[in-house]
Structure formats: C-alpha cells, structure tokens
Amino acid sequence: MVRTRSFQLGISAVVWLGTMAVPAWAQGTSAQPPASAAKPAAPAARAPAPATDTKPGPAEAPAQRTSQAVLAATRIRDGDALMRERRYREAAFAFLDAEHAAPDHVEARFKLGNALAVLGYYARAIDEWEAASRLTQDAAIRQSAQDNITRARTKQAEAGASPQAVGQLPGSGPVADTTRAQARRAYEQGVQHISQRAYAPALQTLTQALQQEPLLTVAYIARGSANIGLRRYAEAAADYQFALKLEPESASPLYGLAEAYRALGRNLEARDLYERYARSTAADVRPELKEESRQKAERLR
C-alpha cells in the first residue's frame, strides 16, 4: 500500500472536509455540485489489434519501469489542477485513472470520492471513502472519511433517486447520439494514427474519444497500444486492466497487458496472460497471435 503521508499535495477546491489534522489532500471546502451530472456510454463493436512486439533494450528497460504508484501520483496532480479550475467531471476521470493504476492508493480513492461528491454521485463517493478508510491506519483520515460519508448520506437522502445518488459513475448512463458519433470518429482516427505509428497523435485523439464516451472499451485497448508505442508501459497496463474490467471475456486486453507487463519486467504475470490469450476462444482472438503467445509464454518459463 502506498504511504499516504508522502503525498502532501495541498489543494483548495476539494469538498466536504473541515480543519482536522489530516493531510492537505484530505481537507476541503463546501463546493456545491453542478445542476446536471455526467451521462454514460456503451462499448464499440470493433476492437483494434492489440499491441505487439514490445522489445525494450537491456539498457533502457529499467528506465521504462515506471511504477503504478508514480503514474497514480501524476494523475492525482492532474486531478488537483482540474479541481482548482472547477472542472470536476474531468478531475473525477483523472482520479479514476489514478485508481486504475494503483487500486490501493489511499489518496486516489479519497480524492475520487471528493470529486464524485461535488458532481452529486454520493453513493459512489461513499464507496471510495469507505475503501480509503479500509486501506489506511491513519485515524484522522478515517475520521475525515466518516465525516464525509455522514454528510454525503444526508445529501443522498435529499437528492432522492437521481442517477448520481443511486451510485452511477460519470459516463455510465446513455450517451447522446451526436456525442457517440464524435467519440467513434475520434476512436477511428486514433486507430488510423496507430497504423501509421503516429503514437502521440493517437494518444491524444483516443483520450478525446474516452472523454466523450468514457466506457468505450475498444478505445482503452487502442490507447493501450498507443502507450506501448510510446513506451509508456505503466500507462498501457492501466488502460488494458480497465478494458478487462469492462469486458472480462475479451482477449485483446490480455495480449496487450502481457506485452506491457513483459516490458515492465513482470514476467510471471506476462506469461500467465500470454497463456490465457492462447487458450481464449473470444471473438477478437487473432490466430497468429495465439501461436505467438504460446511461444512468448514458453520463453518466459
């Protein structure tokens, strides 16, 4: 578990908390939620080919082993900046990225709860604060989380049965047809960039697609491939992990995550994922990659 005391980031636009002796990131204000909340998404039908042939050289491999905790800290800083700008929905997704990278990161979960509460997603905020409490031994943070939970439950009762109050995440409901069309265009453009090995533009357009349709599974897979191309292996792993969470039966994230883990030196986990891909009967399995997966798994024994 990441030690929470090492992240004294100090922000001014976090919600709910008072003046207790807790880390700066666990203190907040009484910001009011906006009148409307985020709307959701549905997965696309066609997945991109998973990233292949990750071969960091011996000298560069250690430099590429960016820890999940470092990635989480980076996205937390992004979220802090967005909170200061009152861009709460974008901040929520930044903190969610941090949680995907490091699920046991207390600060990521606490701050995600803060952002969700501002947006009116009280049940989900409560879940995050409860998780943060379970992950820390700091009595002050636990008390602050409990104070937040008490206030959120009061707000939840006042909100009634709104989508936010019953626990839906931003991006988990219907997506307008025009927004979905924009997301799919950005996704297709990102896949085209990947085919041209233009990984930086691909990363940008695929991120835009996910901001418009946050549960677009194939965009996470494609963004993982773009991150692999940029040798951002920890970021790629986080994207593939979330794609698997959204669609556990799909195969493409298995291969991509195996490639990311192999580049990060996590060979036992990579071998297991290659073997799972080789055994998979999912519709998105590519026959040539099944054999390649068997060979790579064997080399990692």
Automatic annotation (TrEMBL):
This is Uncharacterized protein. The keyword NAD does not apply. It comes from the Bacteria. It holds the Pfam family TPR_16. Residues 31-51 have a biased composition (Low complexity). InterPro entries: TPR-like_helical_dom_sf (IPR011990), TPR_rpt (IPR019734). Residues 1-26 form the signal peptide. SUPFAM superfamilies: TPR-like. Keywords: Signal, TPR repeat. The keyword Transcription does not apply. It comes from Corallococcus aberystwythensis.
